[in-house]
Amino acid sequence: MASSPTGSGKTAAYALPLADLLSKKDTARAIIIAPTRELAQQIQTVIKAVMQDTFMQTALIVGGKNMQGQLRKLKQKPQFVIATPGRLNDHIKRRTFGVEDFKFVVWDEMDKMLELGFREQIEDIFNRLPAKKQSMMFSATYPKRVLKLAEKYLNNPVKVITEEVNKPNQNITQKVIKIEGNEKLKKLTELLQDHSKAGKQILVFVKTQRAANEISVYLKRKNFTVVAMHGGLQQKVRDKNLLDFRQGLVQIMIATDLAARGLDIPAIHCVINYELPQNPEEYVHRIGRSARYKNKGISYTLIARSDRADWKKIKEFLNN
Predict the structure, then answer these.
(1) Are the C-beta atoms of 274 and 203 separated by less than 8 Å?
(2) 58-70 burial, b if ≥16 CB within 10 A, otherwise e?
(3) pLDDT, tens digit, for every residue of 113-172?
(4) How far is 139 from 285, CA to CA, in rounded Å?
(5) Residue 270 in contact with residue 202, Cβ under 8 Å?
(6) Does domain 2-161 have CATH number 3.40.50.300?
(7) Is 3.40.50.300 the CATH number for 172-319?
C-alpha cells in the first residue's frame, strides 16, 4: 500500500521494476487497473517508454474503444494489460479475457475508483485473481472504504508514504478570490484574459458536465480557444480535446474532476477552481496539474458565499 503526491513519478516507480521482472520471466504478466480512460492511457504511454527496447507488448482495455481491436491485442498475450474496471469486467463477463494468470497486479488511484462507484467491479476482479500474486495498491488518501478493501484482500501489506499527500506542491502559488456568486463568470473571464495574453495554458475546473459545456460555449463566443473535458463526451472527442490541449492548439480546458488525475501536461501554468470539488482531497490533485517537473505554477480559487462551507473543509484538510 503506497501513497505519494500527484506528479511525483509514481507510474515510473512501479513500471520500471515490473518491466525488469517481466523481461526475465517469459510467462509472467502484469495487470494495471486505473479509474479513468485518460489515466490508463497515460500509464500505457509511460510503460511503452520504459520498455521501448524490449520485446514486451501492452494492451489498453478501456471503454469507448473498439472491442474487437482490444480482443486482437489480448490474444497476443501482452506482458502488460492496462484497464479500467468497467471495460475489464465486460471482457470477464463475456469470457473474452480472464485475470486468473496474472502474477502482478497494480491498483492505481484506488480511492478514485471507489469514488466513481466501481466497488462491485473491483471486488469481482479481486475474487478472480490468483491466490499467489504480488499486489500493489496506490491511493492518494486512505479513507475507511479503501482500508476495508486492503484489509480484506491484501496480505499484511507493507505501507509506503513518500510525503504528506494533503500538502500542495510548494512551487504552486495559491490565490483565493472572494466574490459574489453572480460575478464568477466575469472574474473568470478577467483571469483568462490576463493569463492568455502571456501564452500560458490554463485548466479550469467545474463540478458538472453541464457547466463545462456552457462555460466552453460562452468563452468561445468571447474568442478564447477552449475545449471541454468530461465523462459525457464520446471517447474520440475526449482524445482529440486532450491532444489539442496537450499540443498547445487550444489554450484553455474546462474540465470536471475527470481531469484532476492522469493529466500529465508540463505546460499547464494556471489552474482555476471555478467551482470547488466534491471532496477536499481533490483540491490538491486539481492544482497539482500545474507546476509539473519543478516548474512554477499558480492556482486561483473563486469563493462565493455558497462555497464557504466547502472551502472551510478544504482548509481543514490542508491543515491536518
Answers:
(1) no
(2) bbbbbbebeeeeb
(3) 988 889 999 999 999 999 999 999 998 777 788 889 988 999 989 988 876 666 787 889
(4) 12
(5) yes
(6) yes
(7) yes
